[in-house]
Amino acid sequence: MEKLSQEIINWVRTEDKRVVIGIAGHGAAGKTTFANKLKEQFMSKEVNYINTDPYIVSSSIRKHAIIHYTYENKEHHYKMTACHPAAHHLESLERDVQMVRDGLDFYTIDTHYMEREFISSNRKVTIVEGMSVAFLNSDLFDLKIYFYTDGETELMRRTSRDVAERGMDIEYLRQSHEERRIQYEVFMHPYHERLI
Q1: Which of 24, 35, 109, 162 could form a disulfide with 168 if both were Cys (CB 3.0 to 4.6 A apart)?
Q2: Where are the domains of the chain?
Q3: Which GO terms describe its molecular function (predicted)?
Q4: pLDDT tens by residue, 104-135
């Protein structure tokens, strides 16, 4: 991660314009960790950070949306996870990224788990990070990064993060993991080629 981070910083320093960096990937792939480390390499007055979690439709709504899909010639019926493009407020996020590109200031979405932040058009770097980035028009970004992790690593990371930090029930996490991973393969992973 250090080497990639340094390469990005060196590239940003050569650019004579504002740049927008998109960081996407599956849940627990390391996106937020990397974005935060990258953000720390810049002075606070030169970087914006947009976490796209507030642009994901609430799980309290998604749990009522049962979707049907085929994976390895088998029919699946399961609640919509954040791996599905329809689980995101993409138009709102696209508008906000375009506002950065157009030099317009705004505030990010205020939620119960994340306070709003002021996004300044005067800052040279804007980092847009989260699962939602995978589904956006890749032309919105000057640099695109996609993080991938295998299912076993994802489950291990989710167990330590989602259970310890977010209070999720470990049995629910284990039961839902397989379908979440299948939805990732069916709906989200095909988008990764646009970002690499």
Answers
A1: 162
A2: 2-195
A3: ATP binding; uridine kinase activity
A4: 999 999 998 899 999 999 999 999 999 999 99
Torsional class of 103: left (φ above 0), alpha (ψ -120 to 50), beta (otherwise):
left
CB atoms within 10 A of CB 196: 10
Q: How far apart, in whole angstroms, are the C-alpha atoms of residue 173 and residue 157? A: 11
Helix (H, G, I), strand (E, B) or coil at 106: strand
Mean pLDDT of the chain: 93
Q: Which structure tokens are listed for 112?
A: 């119960």
- The whole-number pLDDT of residue 196 equals 64
Using left for φ > 0, alpha for ψ between -120 and 50, and beta otherwise, residue 73 falls in left
Task: Kindly report, residue by residue over 5-30, the tens digit of the pLDDT.
Answer: 999 999 999 999 999 999 999 988 99
Give the whole-angstrom CA distance, residue 192 versus residue 71. Answer: 18
Q: How far apart are CA 147 and CA 164, in angstroms?
A: 23
| Tally of CB atoms within 10 A around 171 | 8
- The pLDDT > 70 percentage for the chain reads 99
Query: At residue 154, what is the residue type?
Result: E
Fold of 2-195: Rossmann fold (3.40.50)
C-alpha to C-alpha distance for 105 and 90, rounded to whole angstroms: 19
Q: In 3-state terms, what secondary structure has residue 130?
A: coil
